[in-house]
């Protein structure tokens, strides 16, 4: 893979360690999986919509990136969870996706549930949020936009 060239994902991770503990090892991001704007769902890439890239560039600083996780729960069995993070760990090796200067990181367990998806930023009258759209692993979703069930 190529180096992730975007500042949010360059591997200048700020370790989140308890005070007094040794600094966490920094993980250079050598495994950026997506550097083009093409939507290629067949190889498990996560793509970012134009609105997602724009919003991430507005809200992230330095080495921050958007972390996407899949957890059990929600209305349909699984739910998407988004957060800003600065530490790229060993479990993220296959799930570093950069596009247009913005970066999304997905851990290996979550990646199995979202590979081939697109991350979008939706702004509506009552809320604005990051969302996973066009998830080929999802059988159906909930109207909340954050919960889904998987194809078996």
From TrEMBL:
Chain intervals for the UniProt region annotation (Disordered): 14-44
Location (main, coarse): mitochondrion
Alphabetical list of Gene3D superfamilies matching this protein: HesB-like domain
Entry annotated with the keyword Mitochondrion: yes
GO molecular function, one term: 4 iron, 4 sulfur cluster binding
Subcellular location: Mitochondrion
PROSITE patterns, alphabetized: HESB
GO CC field: mitochondrial [4Fe-4S] assembly complex
Protein keywords: Iron, Metal-binding, Mitochondrion
Core domain: residues covered: 46-145
One GO BP annotation of this record: iron-sulfur cluster assembly
Transcription regulation among keywords: no
A Pfam family annotated for this UniProt entry: Fe-S_biosyn
Its job: Involved in the maturation of mitochondrial 4Fe-4S proteins functioning late in the iron-sulfur cluster assembly pathway. May be involved in the binding of an intermediate of Fe/S cluster assembly.
Family per record: Belongs to the HesB/IscA family.
Description of how the protein assembles with itself and partners: Heterotetramer; forms a dimer of dimers with IBA57. Interacts with [2Fe-2S]-ISCA2 forming the heterodimer [2Fe- 2S]-ISCA2-IBA57 complex; [2Fe-2S] cluster binding is absolutely required to promote the complex formation.
Protein name: Iron-sulfur cluster assembly 2 homolog, mitochondrial
Organism from which the protein derives: Upupa epops (Eurasian hoopoe)
GN (gene name): Isca2
